[in-house]
Write a structure and sequence with these properties.
By secondary structure, the protein is α+β, with helices and mostly antiparallel strands. The protein is built from 2 helices and 9 strands, in the order βββββββββαα. The relative contact order is 0.17.
Length: about 140
Amino acid sequence: MPLHVEIIAAEQVIMSEDADVVVAQTASGQVAILPAHAPLVTLLVPGQLRLGRGSTEQVLSVSGGYLEVRENQVVILADAAERAEDIDLQRAIAARERAEAVLAQKQSNAEAARASIALSRAIARIRVAEITRGRAAMRRPN
C-alpha cells in the first residue's frame, strides 16, 4: 500500500498523490518515509523534497514547514513549495546573490538571520532546478 502525500502551502494544496517513498530535509537531518512508517511530526528545513513512485521521482523545493506521518499518510505544511519545473532559476540565483550581499555587509543580527534563511531557500531552489534540468539534458538525444 503506497503512502498518500499532501503538500499544502499558502493555504492551497500543491500536490495530493500517492508515493512509495518520501525523502525530506528535517531539522535533525534527512528522513525517508516508507509505507507503514511510525507516526512522526517533524520540522522541515529548506531543501529538497523527493517523492518516488515506481521508477519515477518528483523533486520539489520546500522552504521549511512541518511534516506529519500517520497511517500511511504524509501531510506536509510548507512555508512554500515549488515543483522543480516551476522554479525560475535566474530569479533563484538573483535571490541567492542578494542574500549573500546582505550577509557580507555585517548587518544586525536580525537582518543577518533573515538573509541566512533567504540564502538557504535560494540554494534549495537552485539545487532542485539544476537537478531537474540536468536530468532533462541527459535525456536529450545528441
